[in-house]
Amino acid sequence: MSVKDSILDKIVKAGDAKKASKIIVYQLTDTSFTDYMVIMGVLNPIHCKAVLEEINKLAKQMLSKKENRDFYSFPRVTGTPESGWVIVDLNSIIVHIVLEDIRKYYDLDALFENRAIVFYH
User: Fold this and answer.
1) With CB atoms counted within 10 Å of each terminal CB, which end of the chain scores lower, N or C?
2) Is the pLDDT confidence value at 121 over 70?
3) Whole-angstrom Cα distance, residue 53 to residue 57?
4) For the CA atoms of the chain, what is the radius of gyration?
5) Are 121 and 12 a contacting pair, CB within 8 Å?
6) DSSP E strand boundaries for the chain
7) What is the number of domains present in the chain?
């Protein structure tokens, strides 16, 4: 397992540990801005905040390892838990933590599923 796959696995497990739903990993094949897109569903803003905190904690721990810095950067967060949609940009991995209603309304999965290799969790 590569370092990138290991980090991706840890991110999925962190979301799973906080009970995020419908975690799907998209390995993008036609873009240069990122390698993986992860979408995690949450129930409410409090749940969103808990998942975000877990992902940020994990990201900061992983940054301490020199081999991770080649493709991984300090987490940049866009959005707030109160909005129901938070994006965590880790450079090669982008994580969407989003309320299920918003995910369904914007049909986020349809944006990526035809352009990517899909891994369900």
Assistant:
1) N
2) no
3) 6
4) 13
5) yes
6) 21-28, 36-42, 72-78, 85-91, 93-99, 116-120
7) 1
Q: Tell me whether residue 21 is exposed, middle or buried, using C-beta atoms within 10 angstroms of its C-beta: 0 to 12, 13 to 18, 19 or more.
A: middle
Does pLDDT of 20 surpass 90? Answer: yes
**Contact, 37 vs 24, CB < 8 A?**
no
> 35-52 pLDDT, tens per residue?
889 999 999 999 999 999
Question: pLDDT-based confidence at 99, cuts 50/70/90?
Answer: very high
CA-to-CA separations, 73 to 2, 60, 89, 93, 99, in angstroms, rounded = 17, 9, 8, 9, 25
**pLDDT, position 90:** 87
Residue 26 belongs to domain spanning = 3-120
Dihedral (CA of 27, 29, 34, 39) sign: negative
Domain of residue 50, CATH code: 3.30.460.10
Task: List the end-to-end C-alpha distance of the chain, in Å, as a whole number.
Answer: 17
